[in-house]
Amino acid sequence: MGDQQAAQRLQCRRQGLRHLAHLALNEAGLRSKRPPRSPGDKKGPAEAASIQSLPPELLEHIMSFLPVSAGGGPGRTPPTPYAQTCHTLYCVCDSEGAWRRACRRLCALPPLALPGARPWKRAAVLNYTKGLVVQPFGGRQRGPSRPPAPALAHGYRKLVPTREHVLVLDHAGTLFSLRHALTPAPGQWRRAARYAVLCRGTKDFTTDPRSDAACRKYVYVLATRAGGDGGPAPDCVEVYLQGSGQRIFKMTFHPALRFRQLRLLGPETARALLLLTEDGRVYSLSVDESQLAQPRSYTVQLALRKVSRGHPGTPIAAIAAAPHSAAFLTEQGTVYLEVHAPGVYRDLFGTLHAYDPHDPQMPLVLSLPAKVLSCALGSNHLGLVDEFGRVFMQGSNRHGQLGTGDKIDRGEPAQVPSLARPLALWCGLNHSVVLAPSGAGGREVLGCGCGAGGRLPGWPKGSASFVCLQVEVPPSASSLCSTRDGLYVLCSYDIEEQPAFRDLPPGAPAVPPVPSPGVPPACTALLVQLQSCPTLPGRVAKLQEAVGALPLPPAQRHFLCQGLELVQRSPEPVLSKSTFISSSHQ
């Protein structure tokens, strides 16, 4: 078996060498009649005109016509025979000269060397892997659509769907508007131009925080504009109409204030625009969207948010916003939460004990055993990812949107054992979706919660635990978001991204299960063990062990036996908590 594989590798290398020699001779114009070989000359034609004898500039020019994946590419495909031939050709394929020429071939505009250790390779790979997959919910169109990537875009960094279009920000700071990306007309993608440049010099942008894209009428853009007197360029916030792309409002800040992120919070008539500075302070100002269309100028007051006033030595790294709540993630990995509605507070914490309606900006600390790297905030639930790749969910669980396998609300962060090292996490209205790695370097989308309206493709009845959705996911997918109308998967691979997660130290204590209201701790611990078992026989064995080991009253023991029979008869390896809820109340 080993000799067979070695022979195949040798044959593959010989084929790659012949193909490269053929390309080299064609490119250099050296193809001619084969010279007659003398009787004493034992050299073959490949040795007489070796590709390695060509100048380095010519070799780099030839290699630039190969596919991007042949030179290392996104790092998710196996090496091709061209780079496997020898060390010299591998170095030529991965040289910055070859990547610079490939970037010129892939970009419509003059190539832009992005910052990083390998600027030209990063630019070429970003342009090669950029893309967008849109999975509509309901309606006539069931399959996914792929809007054409703008040739002017240098990769994709962020996307936000609006009422009619999809807004995409690239790594060069250009904001694009993809026309009618959700419901394309027949033959629409065959047209030459189906996108428009909305703004340049963009740092960040946002829209209405609600999950319904029909409510996203205005687009708030944080950009940098050149000063008129030749001084430093100040930051400004511009407001555009998402339908026509017309700018209707602009506010300019002092050049000393440098911002990097903005989010929206609150109703339309009393918007709170949250602005995060480069040094980690959070400012806010009030905006009335009903007066934006009126052609007049007025002054607004920029105030420091209470989370920055109360913790001046704690810089904020990122902001997540929902219609009535906001989460502030610090550089140390702590999460502060603001809640502005009593109903949302009750859904998130299960009580109104500490809610103060007169001071909604009072930040509340979420306790987690490790540093938090990312936060996703929904209407009535939230998700956290720590430095070890563990996922914690908190809030309302009426539809199973927490993915814990039950429909019991969580007033504290509860770990989801079935998820590890996710690439992206999104919390929607009554459901949650996760972009997770799969086998062989692929990607898959997992979802839980309410499946009404096609929000969980392949699971119309929904699911209380995370299940694999029937969605097309390219191997270069990097982020995702979901609205009432569809699921959007953003594709763009950045070679400068470093692994964000660390390995859990050996002997580290496990996260204790969060006790649920009205459920005994023994039942809660048992349910966590059942959720960690991926197979049906493992859960049955756990139940059999629990029936004889747990010190439960006869009534609860009887309901456990009923749950065991239910699992044995169930065709799906999903265990409901209704039996244990009944046993706890008995």
TrEMBL record:
RCC repeats: 389-438
Annotated region described as Disordered, given as residue ranges: 25-49
Superkingdom field: Eukaryota
SUPFAM superfamilies the UniProt entry points to: F-box domain, RCC1/BLIP-II
Signal peptide: none
Protein name: F-box only protein 24
Organism: Alligator sinensis (Chinese alligator)
Lineage: Eukaryota, Metazoa, Chordata, Craniata, Vertebrata
Gene name per UniProt: FBXO24
